[in-house]
Amino acid sequence: MKVIVVGSSHGGYETVRGILAQAPETEIQWYEKGDFLSFLSCGMQLYLEGVVKDVNSVRYATPEGMRAQGVHVFTRQEITTVDPAAHTVTVHDLAHDTTRTEHYDKLVLSVGAVPASLPVPGADLPNVYAMRGRDWAAKLKAKTVDPSVQNVVVVGAGYIGTEAAEVFAKAGKHVTLVDMIPRPLGVYLDEEFTDILEDTMKAHNIYPATGQTVKEYTAENGQATQVVTDQGTYPADLIIQTAGIKANTDWLQGILDLDEKGLVKINDHLETSAPDIYAVGDATKVPFAPTEGHEQIALATNARRQGRIAAKNLLGERIAMPPVSGSSALSVFDYHFASTGIKEGTADKFGVKTASIFVRDTTQPPFVPTTAGNTDVYFKLTYAPDSHRILGAQIMAKRDVTANINTISLAIQAKLRLEDLAYADFFFQPGFDRPWNVMNVAAQKALLGEKTAVLS
């Protein structure tokens, strides 16, 4: 059997890895449009801050390593069209500007997404950068040490934008963080957390200009010099656009069924509208455990799960993609946070009635001094007010307690209730934690005094 895999990031890599694990005799052709295989944009901050020294190491695999396992790896070769009836793809060899046709028995599309460009004047100026991919990583690295860059404006206050802002603040630049949403990281955290993080950003030379719409980038001598919003004008020697992503599927119009956002329509077995064609990654939706519906959740964890499930299905198994909770985590200077599922701020988006309880505690018993690592921990639990089913949570502290959110993710998937979490068994040792885990405390508090819960 011949399998063609398009795209070398998370979903494509995991598909290839899954096939090799179960059926290494399979003929695999693996295509990457760029000249670098399996770069991980999620590792870009570590490279830009110097934690990782070599940009070429921020990857899953090398062509040489995969070829040694029998995979036919093609870089700088783009799949430009698919003929589902003939089971063929057209390949454009970018290095030699030639085309050819390749036949497949199974085709897996991990085409991902591209940075969304704001439709504003000046968006195409040369000092307007993106933060995605190896080429941009190298360009951004140079700007962190460029003495002519003093004012940086980051457009987009999500994960990627926050990472970019922190990188350049640590490099000694003045950073303005612009977004339409009222709070930085507001998609992932409720205001009890973002209020703290916003103060932290300001203390580190990042100015959150949130609740503002970008109108234009003004220029002098062919370079952007200012970002103009509906509320202010901000000086900019460098602009970094991180305002969302767009599915890389324009070339699939009329070939596969796409939704109104350009996402590839798939079933729970990752099958598209065409026989023997599967799709995984950021250009698809995944089953969402809290609502039992489907959502676009562009996370590496989801893409890799899809890749492994696609590999199993194309090899003859019949396995559905398991529901996910959208779990993610990030550090903002000294704070570490994680969230999963539905939050008070996203309940309306999902059309779900929720209640929430917020707990501020310490990570260890009061007799443990702060010099020994004891610190405040903030935890918010969201649940269904009628059934008490757990729907989501957020946690944050200056000590890394983010792994707790994995427990909540599992609780969501298992449809556990407050009653299950209130007395769930977690270890206690004063050098690590409290006798009652903060998750226990939140569930108990919700059950004993729901009138104090925050309703949404």
From TrEMBL:
Oxidoreductase keyword on record: yes
SUPFAM superfamilies to which the protein is assigned, alphabetical: FAD/NAD(P)-binding domain (SSF51905), FAD/NAD-linked reductases, dimerisation (C-terminal) domain (SSF55424)
Pfam families: Pyr_redox_2, Pyr_redox_dim
Coiled coil, from the record: none
GO molecular function: oxidoreductase activity
Family: Belongs to the class-III pyridine nucleotide-disulfide oxidoreductase family.
Highest classification ranks of the organism: Bacteria, Bacillati, Bacillota, Bacilli, Lactobacillales
Domain Pyridine nucleotide-disulphide oxidoreductase dimerisation: 331-433
Organism the protein comes from: Schleiferilactobacillus shenzhenensis LY-73
Protein name: Npr
Domain of life: Bacteria
Co-factor(s): FAD
Keywords, ordered alphabetically: FAD, Flavoprotein, Oxidation, Oxidoreductase, Redox-active center
Domain FAD/NAD(P)-binding: 1-307
